[in-house]
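Private note to self, pasted from the team thread so I don't lose it. Backbone tokens:
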């Protein structure tokens, strides 16, 4: 059986990647996504992924070799089918760092890091509740009748396998696995990327225009740097996307989903 990505028509002229942010999520990646847009890049983030069923399927497929040991690691022509319309990538490269560094060696790379305990607390307040909710009523049932929820849940399964290993998101062992992954990921990025093509910024030192613009060769904009790292806002944004995605699917399967959607509205 052919892979899903094989059926996707790539853009005629895929954009070369100018900037790739290799940070795992909860490291200021939303602010960087918006900052790169201010600087004139066509910037991509997980928010763009979950806006498209096709993009969620491609992300799932790209993760499968790493999360489940299935298939071959993606190459440039695979990524171009998914990300060819963008010249800057944030958030999702944290889960595919080795593949994207190999695919786009001409890019400049940014890695943001933070205190491990602070990262784990943020993950516990954001990624963990979403992973748990997807395994419970009503989302666990909706994945079987809602195309969007099915694609989102399949993608989340691959992300959870990557982040938590063999443990469930709510298990303490899963969080410890994620901590070790965070350590090894940050070390691996520094090892992979030539130092003259990599900017490393600790969030505790401040993420602002000052280190980013000189590294990218861009003038400092006359606007404040975007500040986006609040767990409550993350949860609201994620569940807003889940609600909209389910509601869109409901239009196509309305007779089946009327009672279920009523429960979902009450739940959220």
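Design output:
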């Amino acid at each position: 059986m052919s892979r899903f990505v094989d059926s996707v028509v790539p853009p005629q002229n895929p954009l070369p990647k100018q900037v790739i942010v290799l940070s795992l999520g909860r490291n200021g990646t939303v602010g960087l996504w918006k900052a790169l847009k201010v600087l004139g890049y066509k910037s991509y983030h997980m928010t763009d992924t979950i806006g498209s069923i096709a993009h969620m399927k491609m992300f799932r497929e790209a993760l499968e070799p790493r999360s489940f040991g299935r298939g071959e690691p993606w190459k440039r022509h695979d990524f171009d089918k998914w990300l060819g319309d963008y010249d800057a990538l944030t958030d999702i490269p944290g889960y595919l760092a080795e593949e994207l560094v190999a695919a786009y060696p001409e890019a400049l790379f940014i890695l943001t890091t933070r205190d491990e305990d602070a990262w784990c607390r943020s993950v516990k307040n954001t990624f963990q509740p979403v992973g748990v909710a997807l395994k419970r009523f009503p989302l666990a049932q909706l994945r079987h009748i809602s195309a969007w929820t099915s694609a989102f849940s399949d993608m989340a399964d691959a992300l959870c396998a990557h982040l938590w290993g063999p443990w469930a998101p709510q298990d303490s062992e899963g969080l410890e696995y994620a901590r070790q992954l965070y350590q090894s990921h940050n070390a691996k990025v520094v090892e992979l990327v030539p130092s003259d093509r990599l900017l490393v910024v600790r969030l505790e030192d401040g993420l602002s225009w000052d280190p980013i613009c000189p590294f990218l060769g861009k003038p400092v904009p006359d606007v404040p740097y975007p500040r986006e790292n609040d767990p409550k806002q993350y949860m609201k944004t994620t569940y807003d996307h889940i609600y909209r995605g389910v509601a869109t699917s409901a239009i196509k399967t309305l007779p089946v989903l009327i009672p279920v959607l009523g429960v979902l509205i009450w739940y959220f």
